[in-house]
Amino acid sequence: GGGQDGFALASAFVADGVPPGWQGVVITGPCMPATERMQLKRMAGDSRRMMIIDRIVEADHWLRRATRVVTMGGYNSVAAILSFAKPALIVPRIRPRREQWIRAERLRNLGWTSVVSPDGLKPGIIRRWLETDDVARPDRSAVNLNGLKTIGERLMDMFESSTVAAHPCLT
Predict the structure, then answer these.
(1) What is the structure's pLDDT at 58?
(2) Pick from 70, 86, 85, 90: nearest CA to 14
């Protein structure tokens, strides 16, 4: 996402660290304030096991290679998680809008992701999730990722089966 409200999650991830043999990657987003990006870099220090990336054009390269994903749950992030069938821990924004929370809850109810409320994001939560062997994973076969094509097909079906009579307009 943009990163403007992602500092709490990013700093919790960096503070918790990653299991031995793993490398953590934090993509801050273009809207994260420079002071927060610098603080994350200071927290990570010289560790080769934690990378802080300021800005990228396309996150899919990193998501494709990820073993697991920790995210706030914005639309594009979740679409990528589903597309690559990556196990994800979603810590959604709940204020001022609940859109991420609604999306995260729905995915958790399907058994496809793990979810932690931002109020429940305590030290160690992310690390414990990373170290857990059996975590929820999206069922890619159950997800239609061809939305634009599907909408077109459904509209065509709707128009072809329509029996609505045409009425002339009076002017």
Answers:
(1) 82
(2) 70
Alpha carbon distances (Å) from 49 to 18, 45, 52: 8, 10, 10
Provide the residue ranges of all domains of the chain, joining segments of one domain with +: 7-139
Q: What is the 3-state secondary structure (H, E, C) of 94-137?
A: CCCCCHHHHHHHHHHHCCCCEECCHHHCCCCHHHHHHHCCCCCC
For the chain, percent of residues with pLDDT exceeding 70: 94
Token readout for 73 is 């749950």
pTM: 0.84
For residue 94, give Cα distances in angstroms to 66, 69, 115: 26, 19, 12
| Selection from 20, 6, 120 nearest residue 70 by Cα | 6
State the average pLDDT over residues 60-79.
93
Determine the distance from the C-alpha atom of residue 108 to the mean position of all C-alpha atoms in its chain, rounded to a whole number.
13
Class of the 7-139 domain? alpha beta
Structure token pair of residue 151: 């909408």
Upstream peptide bond of 20 is cis (omega within 30 degrees of 0): no
pLDDT of residue 27: 94
What does the pLDDT look like over 116-162, one tens digit per residue?
Answer: 999 999 999 999 999 999 999 998 888 887 888 888 888 888 888 76
